[in-house]
């Protein structure tokens, strides 16, 4: 049985990331004041991971336009992230910080550590500007994630954050109707 992280605050952390040719320090404070995605993956130089990270990189400009920063995290070091960035055409597209978590502290904080392997599950977390986790998605290692669907989830989270009393139905897209839960809707949907 696991405890949900939904609506909990992110826990403190300090780490080094590879970002745009430099090593930079990142902490939970960097995630405050804007929407953030923390995107865990098992390891650099693997198979499904570069397809996911490349997909997020292809949607990064749109996420930035929405005021969202992306942080990818694996239990590799920031040095390994740089080496992978330098070696892979797909990973060279990444413009968001790639956080190294060799101690596993961040990975454990988010509940996605595979202890026996020292690797992260495929975990995705959408965090609001107040540092509260609003979306949690965890996948088995063999199941890749879709940046397009992640984008839709962020749009829905942002929409309901700014439209009190409304909710987004399944497959909702920006511009479509939302719902305002009420007694009148019970049994009508």
UniProtKB/TrEMBL annotation:
It holds the Pfam family 1-cysPrx_C. It comes from the Bacteria. GO terms for cellular component: cytosol. Gene3D superfamilies: Glutaredoxin. Keywords: Antioxidant, Cytoplasm, Disulfide bond, Oxidoreductase, Peroxidase, Redox-active center. Coiled coil: none annotated. One of its GO terms (biological process) is cell redox homeostasis. Residues 4-159 form the Thioredoxin domain. The active site is at residue 49. Its EC number is 1.11.1.26. Homodimer; disulfide-linked, upon oxidation. 5 homodimers assemble to form a ring-like decamer. Thiol-specific peroxidase that catalyzes the reduction of hydrogen peroxide and organic hydroperoxides to water and alcohols, respectively. Plays a role in cell protection against oxidative stress by detoxifying peroxides. Belongs to the peroxiredoxin family. AhpC/Prx1 subfamily. This is Alkyl hydroperoxide reductase C. The lineage of its organism: Bacteria, Pseudomonadati, Pseudomonadota, Gammaproteobacteria, Alteromonadales.
